[in-house]
Amino acid sequence: MSPSYAIKRNGQRYHYYVSQARLQNDKASAGTVARVPAKEIERLVQEAVRASDKNGSGSAVEVLRQRVERVVVHADRIEIVKAITDGMPGDEEGESRAIVVQAKLAHRNRAVVLDDGRTAPDPVLLKALCRAHEWRTWLVQGEALSYQELASKAGVTSGYVQKVLPLAFLAPGLTRELLDGRRRLHGGLMARLNRGIPADWDQQLNSF
């Protein structure tokens, strides 16, 4: 497979790994899996290799370069073949060179994702997104006209409303990724909200 990308209507790039046969328009030879989302497969490979690395030193990039010979994507699993590294810690005689991660392609909201059974939205973030969109509806329909009125109607503080409401104005693609669990918040929701959410969609994609 080779790295590639597609540009959606909102201008956002989605990166994939695509089979050479498909790139050459030979669909009959493309195999069972012709295209996989890059971000998800790289995450799964990195996590699996890190978990099996007994030495545990070096950056993520260094570990992958030193420890991975190839990655084979099957319809229902990912097979990571570890490189032969004589003399490196963690390489014991008889140890299997293959790491198998159960994962399969799936479709969510018309997006292709690689599902390892753990992809799910953060329940705290999901609740905040639902609240934000509900409050936005109240504003549009004139049921509340200020942060104070929103807070009174929702039974929360106006400061909380000011932090959470911007979630209703996230880029559509980013919202889908958060709802699908394909994009996770590092450090927690409130830490992200306390830093503020930019109005520009491109800046949002870079900040989440």
Describe this structure in words.
With 208 residues, the protein is α+β, with helices and mostly antiparallel strands. The protein contains nine helices and eight strands. The protein has helices spanning 20-23, 38-52, 60-67, 123-140, 147-154, 158-164, 172-180, 189-194, 201-207, and strands at residues 2-7, 13-18, 35-37, 68-73, 77-82, 98-102, 104-108, 111-115. Strand 4 and strand 5 (77-82) form a beta hairpin.
How would you summarize this macromolecular structure in one to three sentences?
This protein has 208 residues and is an alpha+beta fold. The protein is 39% helix and 20% strand. The protein starts with a strand and ends with a helix.
Percent helix, as a range, is 25-40%
| Strand order, sheet with most strands | 1-2-3
Head-to-tail CA distance between termini = 28 Å
How many helical stretches? 9
Mean pLDDT: 79
Structural class: alpha+beta
Number of domains: 2
